[in-house]
Every structure is written in C-alpha cells, then in structure tokens.
Amino acid sequence: MTDKANVLAVEGIGKSFVGFKALDGVDFSIRAGEVHALLGENGAGKSTLIKVLTGVHQPDAGVISLDGQPVHVRDTHHAQSLGIGTVYQEVNLLPNMSVADNLFIGRQPTRYGFIDRRLMERRAREVLAQYDLHLDVASDLSRYSVAIQQLVAIARAVDMSGRILILDEPTASLDRHEVEILFAMIRRLKARGLGIVFITHFLDQVYEVCDHVTVLRNGKLAGSAPTSELPKLDLVKMMLGRTLAVATHGDRRHRPPPEERQLSFKGVGRSRSIAPFDLDIGEGEVIGMAGLLGSGRTETAKLLFGIDAADKGEAWIDGRAVRIRTPQDAVALGFGLCPEDRKSDGIIGDLSIRENIALALQAHRGWFNRLPKREQTAMADRFVKALDIRTTDIEKPVKLLSGGNQQKVILARWLATNPRFLILDEPTRGIDVGAHAEIITLINELCDKGLALLVISSEIDEIVAYSNRVVVLRDRTHLGELSGDEITTSNIMQMIATETGEVPA
Amino acid sequence: MNTRLLPLYATLLICLIAYAACLIQFPAMFSTRVAGNLLTDNAFLGIAAVGMTFVILSGGIDLSVGSVIAFTGVLLAVLITQHGVHPLVAFAVALAITTAFGAAMGIIIHYLQVPAFIVTLAGMFLARGMCFVMTTDSIPIDHPFYAALQGVFYRLPGGGRLTFIGCLMVAVFVVGMIIAHFSKFGSYIYAIGGNRSSAELMGVPVARTTIGIYAMSGFLSGLSGIVFSLYTSAGYSLATVGVELDAIAAVVIGGTLLTGGVGYVAGTFVGVIIQGLIQTYIVFDGTLSSWWTKIVVGVLLFSFIGLQRVLVVLSLRRSAAPTGG
Fold this sequence. Notes:
Chain A is an alpha/beta fold and about 500 residues long. Chain A has helices spanning about 45-55, 75-80, 100-105, 115-130, 145-160, 175-190, 205-210, 230-240, 295-305, 325-330, 340-345, 355-365, 375-385, 405-415, 435-450, 460-465, 490-495; strands at about 5-15, 20-30, 35-40, 60-65, 70, 85, 110, 115, 165-170, 195-200, 210-215, 220-225, 265-270, 275-280, 285-290, 310-315, 320, 335-340, 420-425, 450-455, 470-475, 475-485. Chain A contains 17 helices and 22 strands. In chain A, strands 6-9-10-3-11-12 form a six-stranded mixed sheet, with helices on both faces. In chain A, strands 18-19-20-15-21-22 form a six-stranded mixed sheet, with helices on both faces. In chain A, a hairpin with a 2-residue loop joins strand 11 (about 210-215) and strand 12. The model of chain B is unreliable at about 320-325 (pLDDT under 50). By secondary structure, chain B is mostly helical. In chain B, helix 2 (about 30-40) crosses helix 8 (about 165-180), helix 3 (about 45-55) runs antiparallel to helix 11 (about 205-230) and helix 3 (about 45-55) packs antiparallel against helix 13. Chain B has a single domain, classed as ABC transporter involved in vitamin B12 uptake, BtuC, CATH 1.10.3470. In chain B, strands 1-4 form a two-stranded antiparallel sheet. In chain B, strands 2-3 form a two-stranded antiparallel sheet. At the A-B interface, helix 2, strand 8 and helix 5 of A face helix 9 and helix 10 of B.
C-alpha cells in the first residue's frame, strides 16, 4: 500500500438504509495510474460505494481520504471539483445538443455575455484530439454511436475532474469493437496517471484491462487482490461466496431426459444482447441457467418470451415452427415469465391478491370476456392453498405481503393460465431463507406435474438442487450444458470461470 | 442534411406554397398593405408564442397565456381609466405582476414537482378569475399616449403600414433567437428539454432555468397583453380565450418538438404567419366562415405531429444501427 501513494482511499465505510446495511466496514483504495475493478453481484453494495465516493450519499461511518487528507464529499459538484468524475452506464448526455455543447455545458466560454461558439468548438476539438477522436463537434451528439457518446462522456468527466474516473458498467451496451476503442482510451488515461475505477460484470474484461480487483458481497468486502495474483476461479468464488456445501439432490436428476423435447429453439439470438444459442426443453424438465450477472441470463429469458424480438434463429413447438415476436405471442403459446424485478415488472402492488392472480388469465380471455368475480375468488382461494400463500385475506393488497409470498402470487398468476413452459428469473431473490426452500419445493412439484421450467438463478446451490440440466452462460454466450452427475456446484463455477477468449459478436 | 431542420423547411415551404396559392386567386394580396397588417394583426399572438416556444423547448407547457393577456388588458384599462395612472407606469406594473406570476408557477413546477400542465391550468383559471374581480365590463381606453403609440408607423412603399406593435413583435422574435442560440440560458433550456436528469448531472442550474423559463413566458404574456390592449384600445375579461392554444399550434407548426429539446424560434414566426395567412385568405374570400382557420390549423397540426414522429423514428433507427449493428 505504500509503494505508490493512494490517490483516494476509504476506510471502514458503512451506510445503512432503513435497517438494511448496504455497506458495512468497507475499505477501498485506488492509486494513480491504476485501473481498479470493482465487482459484485446485484445488491452487493457497488453502487452504494460509488454514490458515497461521488457525494450522492453521506456515509454513516468511515473516512474518505484524498491524497491522505480526510475529505467530506458534500455533493456531486463537490466531488467533481475534488477531481472525482463519474460516467454512468446509461450515457448521461444530451443527444439533442452538439458534441461541443455536451463537453462544455454549464461552463461554456462566453464573450460579452454570449456563448463564444467558435472558441468552444475549438476547445472541444482540442479535448477530443487527445484521444484521437476527430468528430464534427458542431453536429448533434445523437448522430454518433453509443460508443462514441460514451467516449465523449469520459472526455467530459476527465476534462472537468481529471484525477479519478469512475466508470459504472461502461461496456454494458457496447459491442466488441467498441469495447476495444473504450479500452484504448482507458489505457491512455491510465498512462496519464489517472486512477480509474472500473465496474463491470465481464470477467474477461477485468483481466484484460484492470490491475487490481476488489470484490464486494452483501455490503462487505469479500476480497481485494492484484489481478495477476487472482486466478479466475478464485475470483468467481469470491463473488459468489458459496461455501460449496453439498446440495441434497433427489432422484429427479436421474430421470431420463424425455425422448422428445417439445420446445426447441435453434440459433436464437439478438445482436448486442445475446449470442445465438440452441435450447430444447421437454415436459417435466427443469433447466437451470447459471452465470454471473450480465452474462445474458435475463436477455435469454427476454428473447424466449418475446419481450425482445430475436433477430435470428427459429423456434419449434411440437415440431411446428412458431414465431414469437411479442409477449402476447408467447402467452398464446402457453409460455409464462416471472421476471427478475418483481416490484417493477411483476406484481401490481395496489391490487389485491385475487386481482393479481386473475390478471394473466383475464388478459388471455380478452377485454370483453370478464372473469366473474366468483370464479376469480375460487381461483385465488385454490392457489392460496396450493402454493401456501400466507395471507389473512385474498383481498389484501399484494404490496403488504412478504417477498416470498409475492413471488408465489406471480407464480399463481401464470399457473392460472395453465402454461406449458414457465420461465422463472431469479425466483428466490430478495426473499428470506425459509421461503427459498418452499420455492424450490414448488419448482419440483410443478416439474412433476409436467411443466417445462427454465429457472435462472445466481444461487448455484439451488440450481444444482432442482435442475435436470444446467446451461452455463458467460459474456452473453451460452457456453454449454451440464446434465446428470455433471451438475455440481464446482463444475458450474469452473465453467463460468474458464478461459475461452471467444467473445460475442 | 440535418433532419432537425426538416420541419422548419417544411413549414417554410408550406408557408410559401400557401402564399403563392393565395396570390393566384387574389393577386391583390401581393401588397405591403397585406404584409403590414399580417404583422400588426398577429403581433400579440407572435409575442406570446415566443414565450411558448421556450416553454415547449424545455419540455413544459404554459396554458395560462391567454388568461394572462386578458388580465393584463383589464388591469391596464382599470389603472389608466379609473385610477388615472400614466400608461407607461401601468405597463411596468403589469409586466412586473405577470413576470412574478410566471416565476411563481415555475417555482411550483420545479420545487413541488407538479406537472406544468396542471400548474399552468390553475394559473389560467386564476388569471381569468382575477379579470372578473377587477371588472366585468369591457372598458375602452382613451388616452393620448395610446393614440400617440397607435399613430407611430413606418409607411412602406405601396401603402402598407409597419406599426409599432408589428415592429415590437419582430424585435421580440429577434431577441428570442439570440437568447435561444447565443446565451447560456438558451443552451440550458435546450439541455433541460433534451434530458432533465442528465442536464442536472452535467451541472445545468435546473431550478434557476425552469423558473426563468416560466417567468419569461409570463413577461412575454404581459407584453402581449400590452400589445393587445394597444391593438383593441380596450380591456375585456373575456378577451383572448384560447390564445395559448393558438400559440402552441404556432410553435408546433413551426417545427418544435412537443417533447422538448428540439426546435427554433424562427420556426414559430413562420407558424404565426401561416395562421395569419389563412385568416387573411378568409377575409379576402369573404364567403368562408372564419372557423375554416381552425380547420386548416387542425389539419396542419396533425400533419406536423405525424412528420415529427416519422423523423424521430427515422433518427432512432439510424442511431440504433451504426457500427456493424
């Protein structure tokens, strides 16, 4: 820690939100001329840490020091003036204004009280020339690709702050070539002595461009090491943090795969989202989908369910070619999807349990064919019993239920439509441990009833517990499939971590 | 070519075609007299529309404009005829009140995060109601200063009159263009209209700018009220009902995106002139109902909104598939 001075260091940072510890005694430091990767699954505390560094949140405990001097970062403007610049995942620029405006807005050079456009555009060209970017600075930013916009955002942040640059998932919406351009810029800035914090989900990128890795898990520091001393498998273990407990798996796994897998997807893919993949699922089968966040799990689900239209590939059901272009198509084919983000995509909090359960079936029946309330009540009662939804009353608003019970309500909604294929995206996220086991039991029961299930989860132990086959993803590519006795926690982790060098187009 | 300029060119083209069509039917419309009247008759609308342009560029809306114009007219009439105040003093009082009124709406919109639509709707009722509190009659203004201002004009070759209020409108448009394209305030307006949260992150003073935008719209509504009062020599509570909608129509026909961020003050000028041209045509024809103005404006609005959607979709498609997409 002493060989090269830390530009920015935080020690023992803690931050709580109403009873929830987002950060708990985290240490983190960055040196000049270093690219430092900050990793962790969703909710690990990465974004909270960034927000503390940039003054959006004030820490409850701990010290932030800049060049060894403790500082108190008041707000984002103060952070900028201290030399900490941030570029967010979603490019935060103004596409309706010119490149030069975007570089200088808020600090445009003026002459006699008016903006001196000529000077501003000349300075803009100078700033961009440092990165070998030669754009028409007077034309609208929207004319340029997302990658170029990202570079302009970085150029702006560096020009304004210039000591520490925080890049929050800058590569999330870039293709391989664009990532290369971005990395070239990062290396250039590193050579200039900037400290760069790089947040990403792509492990290959970590090894490609970063010098040091810090991993957060559940708001705590999970580990920190130079990239060169940290094999990928150890990194994955650090991120997922499983104790590799042997999961108890039943006979389910040994059930022979159905001779005919009725649902079959061939070469389905979408550029900038997920590389083409094949997937076959039969009735009574559970396919687990494992991979780190951002590996293309949710993207796969979205393609299968028609939320994103696939731009290549075909789908076959019962040997018949079908087209799934919208979620309506998918529902008509008997598909169901329980999304990852329950709160924003799944439940409608103010509606009652009965109404939430009836929703999908009602949509199925059309506008004018209203489901009689008596039937709705009977249906809700049946599912409340069948899925063991704990509530005092089926007329209770869903937002008052616990996470696990909300999850069951969504599940009930789809089960009411009598689906043949159900996609569960992170069914156990954010629910308490006891409810985990119940959801797993439920998955097993559904499978016994002949449903085809695709379950996406970061909990590898759980995937091992219920899957007949496991598909492993990394970097938006389906790497391969494990079945039978191959399905073990360590095999899955190994597969996530292995080097392939192959990258999605 | 910059697709952003396309609506502006389209508006200009429509304006020229419309004028040419008018000329073929009524060659008498080719005169400085018609041109001069076009400016004079639409002066109050044009001035209000400049304020509306800034509001819409920032992604907002101001529905209080028509009521504020009427309020200003009534206030001036009451002050001048019943209290013996000199018109210039009355003008200053009216502008101060309307600017403060606009700023207050801006404060509510920004700090209480209430949609501009609702806040200015309330402002619309409030201003209109205040008219009736002052008087329910139509009060004629008969003051030597008014007569003097109305007598100021430049006689164009061919008999047209370039009146004081016509020139004032043109001046307001010129100042508006300078603010929009050469001041920091103008760039902040475009920034907020483009993406409010990005603008905030990039250090644009969003609060100050939002309040400034509505204050400016209030000021220009007041100025428009003064012009309207000079134009009609009276103050009447029920005057200029729905002028805000004419102003919005002029702004949209002028090529400004209703969602904000894109547009030109110059386009609004052409939008105002097109509306005036239709009215002039109806006057020349003599048999058409004046409601035809509304019908034509409606059709134009529909086609411009359609054109804007097409352009937005096209530009999205282009930016979605740049590199190897």
